[in-house]
Amino acid sequence: MVTKLSHTSFFVTDQEKAYDFYVNKLGFKVHTDVKMDNGMRWLTLNPPEQPDLEIVLIDGSGDVSGMGWDAETQQALKVLLEKGAMGAGVLHTPDCRATYEELKAKGVHFKSEPKEQFYGTECIVTDGCGNWFSMTQPKEM
Amino acid sequence: MNLTTDIYQRIAAAKVYIDDNYHEPIDLERISQQAFLSRFHFHRLFRQVYRRTPHQYLTRKRLDKAKDLLAGNKPINEVCIEIGFESIGSFSVLFKKEIGFAPQYYRDMEYKKKMEQSAQPKKAIPHCFIENYKLDEKRIH
Predict the structure, then answer these.
(1) Residue A119 at interface with chain B, using a CB cutoff of 8 Å
(2) Which residue of B has its CA nearest to A28?
(3) Which residues in chain A have Cβ-Cβ distances shorter than 8 Å to B13?
(4) Cα distance from B131 to chain A (closest Cα, Å)?
(5) Is the pLDDT of residue A46 over 50?
(6) ipTM of this complex prediction, to 2 decimal places
(7) Mapping DSSP to helix (H, G, I), strand (E, B) and coil, where does residue A13 land?
(8) Taking the model in full, what pTM does it have?
(9) Which among A33, B31, B47, B128 is least buried, having the fewest CB atoms inside 10 angstroms?
(10) Residue B58, Cβ neighbours under 10 Å: how many?
(11) Residue in A13, A18, A47 with CA at minimum distance from that of residue A31
């Protein structure tokens, strides 16, 4: 029986820029930030109200050959990240319109403004590092 | 009650003001001025949007920042000043009440954890990541 997700990875074009987005703008908490023997920075974050989920921010822009990937795979990842094509998931917020205005004031980019959907209010936010998310305020049942 | 985009922008601007100025002696008067609303009106709207009062949000912001600084092994008196508290006594009492540990204990605990992670980073990483991302191997540049 599988019960929950404890770790997941986001590939990003720039770890430092991603740190600023997820920690300083969205308010995620740093769980682990250490340098490995091979020079790779192991950086994991927790969403504000999910201390048991670690998101691994992996630098996918540079040399990821250390991860055992061939050149073609590395290039494919780089292209997807540079296009901002990686859709990483859905972020929940208690008030989509307020969070949209707040993040916009902090310089965050959006692909779409808040819109009413049958499941709630939703806009599309980008992390500026290759990924986009739905930011959703679920409809109250 | 549905709020207009203009009101959302004003409330969000005030929240960003708190985020940027939590270390200053800011009060409801100054915060509500950022939204161009009366104190009463602002307090009611902020609470409606964020489900907590401006004071509760400011306090949480300061304590979160205190946790970060303490985890970096900063002396308690410096942390106290940096987050906008005037008295170490009132900071310590509030920190223990909200976080569950005295600041000194929290600092020692977090700093120890950080040092252990730096000394043995692999202990913080699931083995599957170490193996698949080849975190054990030196990179060839």
Answers:
(1) no
(2) B64
(3) 101, 105
(4) 9
(5) yes
(6) 0.84
(7) coil
(8) 0.89
(9) B128
(10) 21
(11) A47
Residues in chain B: 141
> Hey, where are the domains in chain B?
1-51, 59-141
Given CA atoms A8, A10, A16, A17 in this order, what sign does their dihedral have?
A: negative
Domain ranges of chain A: 7-138
Residue range B59-141 forms a domain whose CATH class is mainly alpha
B117 token code pair: 């992670």
The token pair at B73 is 């092994």
Cβ of A5 under 8 Å from any chain B Cβ? Answer: no
pLDDT per residue as tens digits for the range B51-83: 999 999 999 999 999 999 999 999 999 999 999
Extract the tokens encoding A89: 């998931």
CA A90/CA A128 separation, integer angstroms: 16
Quickly name the fold that domain A7-138 has.
2,3-Dihydroxybiphenyl 1,2-Dioxygenase; domain 1 (3.10.180)
